Fold this protein.
Amino acid sequence: MSLFFLLTSVLYLLVRMRGSENMRILITTGGTGGHIYPAVALADLIRKNEPDSAVLFIGNNDRMESREIPARGYDFFGIDAKGFNGNSGDKLKSVSLMSKSYGICRRKIKEFRPDIIVGFGGYVTVPVVMAGRRLNIPVVIHEQNSIPGMANRFLQRFAKKIVTCYPEANPYFPEKKTCLLGNPRASVAKTVEKNREVLCQYGLQPEKKTIFVVMGSLGSSSINDIMKKTLQSLQDPEIQVIYVTGRDGYDEFIKDLNVSDTIRILPYCDQPTLVANTDLTMSRGGATSAAEITALKVPSIIVPSPYVPNNHQFLNAKAMLDAGCAYLLEEKDMSAETVLSLWDKLIHDEETLASMALKCASLGFENAAEDILALLHEVIGESV
């Protein structure tokens, strides 16, 4: 018994040593902010809680992650990858790039010696995860959307665990591997201070009902056209509106604009802060926005972009609608009249707003980053 006790004690110490402050984590992500920002949120938590851990990102050489991630102080290694879209020639090129990147990733993984690889989606994750598993590195993949993307559907076979954000995604993955833990951006959102005095910075009154409208960091020219008519037609003096046009659309939007002094037009903003301190948010259905809105427990109207792959934003919005925390308004059905009618229906209905806020809890995983980090340690421990 004493020998058994000694061996188990040594094993326990080895697990603790590998799964604590000295973790080496390789994160692969890329293509869009919906993949990148959740990955950065997890890395930020690791850097804060476990500063001795080493974090390396692998992403596309020529996409936004190659700029955004190094700007945040993280080591970044770029590779070439391309989705399997287009004609047969394009697909052959994709296969060739993947094959080349697979070999490059094997060499980089051997050099970095990670304890675990975490994939946050995008085609760039495919050669990284495959190379990692070939080298017996445990893999966790994260799916931000309600319906999984093609990369994660393919990579599930290589993963020890799969983290989802919506119950609707779970049936696409093996039940024993799948954990509904949410989006790490929710953990960022929960730290935002709720103090309506922030509205004073915009010349608005904290006690008034306030609607915040934002259609992504770049905005939408088609939505801007509709919203210009909407705001010029708004006649309810009890409603304040903050509308974000996007940087590119701001100058055109404010040209010849005639609106009341209860409306503020911005080119860009700190989105979580304004979501937290307004009564109703109207936004796109991207994974990051949805995670922030639900974590902050703010009722919302979701206008999904019809231009994203696999109709992800519509499906995310449908999941929020089904949970009872949001209304779904498709862009094809959007007009000044429909927007004003929906605002009027919701903003003065305290009972409905309170119910929607309460139901956000079913999707607002405010401890998502912490729970995912704990899962990584668990997987590392099981792999010793």
Q: What stands out?
A: The chain has a mean pLDDT of 89. The radius of gyration is 23 Å.
